[in-house]
Amino acid sequence: MDFLANYDQGALLPLLVSCAALAFLFVISTRVKPGSPPSPLRLPIIGHIHHMSKRPHRALQKLAQKYGPLMLVKVGPVPFYIVSSAKLAREISKSEDTSIPARPRLKAANVLFPGHRDLIFSPYGHFWRHARKICVNELLSLKRVLSFHHIREQEVAKMAEVLRCNKPSSPVNLGSMFVKLADTIVRKAVLGEKYGGDECSKLVGELARNAADLVSGPCLGDYFPMLSWFDTLTGHTAKAKRTSQGWNKFLDQVIDEHQARPGHAVARLDDAKDFVDILLQLQKEDTVGLELTRENIKSILVDMFVGSIDTSAAIMEWIMAELAKHPTIMKKVQEEIRRVVGDKKKIDEQDFQHMEYYQCVIKESLRLHGPSTMARQTSSATTLGGFDIPGDTTVFINLWAIQRDPMLWEKPLEFKPERFLNTSHGFKGQDDKYFPFGMGKRICPGSQFALSEVEYAIANLLCWFDWKLPEGVKLEDLDMRDTFALVTRKESPLQLVPSLHKAV
Ligand code: HEM
Fold first, then answer.
1. Which sites bind heme (predicted)?
2. With the C-alpha atoms ordered 290, 295, 299, 305, is the resulting torsion angle positive or negative?
């Protein structure tokens, strides 16, 4: 204690008082309430931000290994409850009618969808129920998805033509190719063939990307409400307003053009209709139990773009990346596809029922590289896994961690499509451990639309082309790192070299 003797006693007292105050503050701000789930050690003011990384789904998985399947994580003063087990995720889906039905209210979503008039972000209630019914029964039903087969066929044929004309041995950027494919298919289905051209592609692509980035990226005001003004400085608020105005202007024009068409008055919901036609028709019929305003219609249309482009493009890229990384699996699935297609010049959608191994490849890719997290909001105080969760609080389900849980999956990090052979794991969200499209009331209504597109596009690439890594790139060099967004995307775009399969 000699060093204390060197200090002036008068100066020491304030120092000790400050240290005691800081220690008190630390204890108060890091205290866990009784009944609350475990929580890692947190710092005053910032909470658990120091535990996070560029890839929060991975950081949260690591924390869950230490703190358990339900933990409390604070970003600044805002609490988040993180669920990392399939059992608790299922418990949430069962409680959706009562306590955990909504999605968090994000600042960006409030600007993009004022008054929560869309499906993704609207609270669980009258509007959501009716909007959901419209999406499931009218826009994204199996019948409707099948009616868009000609769009998938046209766009995949165009993609194959580009590959055919590719210079020998030169790599193709599959990442951007799949974004273009997913964007064009959804644009034609939602807005109509007229809007399938390149001039629309840039505008819609940018608006959809901005909207997806805004609702999945960080926004300071969501975590530190007192610092909302900072989002104005960073341009986040302006970007949200610009994107919202961009969508409004563009979709107003699309709707006006649809309404001005001769025959718009014909009261039929036939197969040739795009989503705008269908929604305008439902608006006129007024039979859906919901006043479908123009604003509602525009918001539902934006959802279709936000929900579909990145998700479908990302999974197509991951399937091809995993196959490039595992050449024996690539060979096996190509043999199956080519055997089923036989001498035909075209793949039929019925062929997929006979491609059992190919279905397993898609399922395994969605297990490893599906969406990162699903968000829910409690409507009132509730309990989960025996712990208390306050009302009006966000619960994140770390789907990425669940699909890699070693308690559920043997060798979870290995790409092994065989694990799905002779199993009943499906996409309906009723499985105990496999739900890449979510589960319960808010399960993805677009799964059929996405799977039809992914199945058809990838089967064509594997049937008519052989694929190898670019010159000089070794198997172990293939970058499989992911980034965090609504879905986990490949950090660096996949580049592969196609060559026409010799039997073609
Ligand atoms: C491989 C592609 C896709 C994947 C992996 C995927 C996955 C998901 C997931 C995990 C959810 C959240 C479910 C939950 O919270 O329980 C979701 C919601 C949603 N998805 Fe998809 N999705 C895909 C494609 C699509 C497509 C093509 C569309 C539309 C054309 C779409 C539209 C939506 C909508 C509107 C919601 C919100 C539903 C609601 O809150 O009621 N998705 N999706």
1. 444
2. positive
> CA dist 119 to 39, 75, 106, 136, 282, Å?
32, 27, 14, 11, 16
Beta bridge partners of 102: 377
Q: Domain map of the chain by residue range?
A: 56-500
Contact present, 449 and 140 (Cβ < 8 Å): yes
Superfamily for domain range 56-500: Cytochrome P450 (1.10.630.10)
Q: Tokens representing 493? A: 């775009």
- Quote the ligand 1 centre to 449 CA distance (angstroms): 10
The annotated binding site for heme is made up of 444
Ligand 1 centroid to Cα of residue 304, in Å, is 9
| Residue numbers of the chain with a pLDDT score lower than 70 | 1-32, 97-99, 263-271, 503-504
3-state DSSP assignment of residue 467: strand
Given this model, what pLDDT does residue 266 score?
A: 52
pLDDT of residue 26: 55
Using CA positions, which residue lies closest to atom 1 of ligand 1?
A: 312
Q: Which atom of ligand 1 is nearest to the CA of 439?
A: 16
3-state secondary structure of 234: helix
362 lines ligand 1 (CB under 6 A): no
Nearest CA to ligand 1 atom 3: 311
Angle, helix 236-260 to helix 275-285, in steps of 10 degrees: 70
Q: What are phi and psi of 291, to 5 degrees?
A: -80, 105
User: Residue with structure tokens 């300071």?
Assistant: 220
Residue 353's pLDDT is 95
Query: What is the value of ipTM here, to two decimals?
Result: 0.99
CA gap 372, 55 in Å, rounded? 10
Task: Report d(CA 75, CA 78) in Å as an integer.
Answer: 5
* Phi and psi torsions of 451, nearest 5°: -65, -40
In contact, 316 and 183? CB cutoff 8 Å: no
Predicted pLDDT of residue 13:
66
- Residue of 306, 444, 458 to test ligand 1 pocket, by largest number of atoms within 8 Å of CB: 444
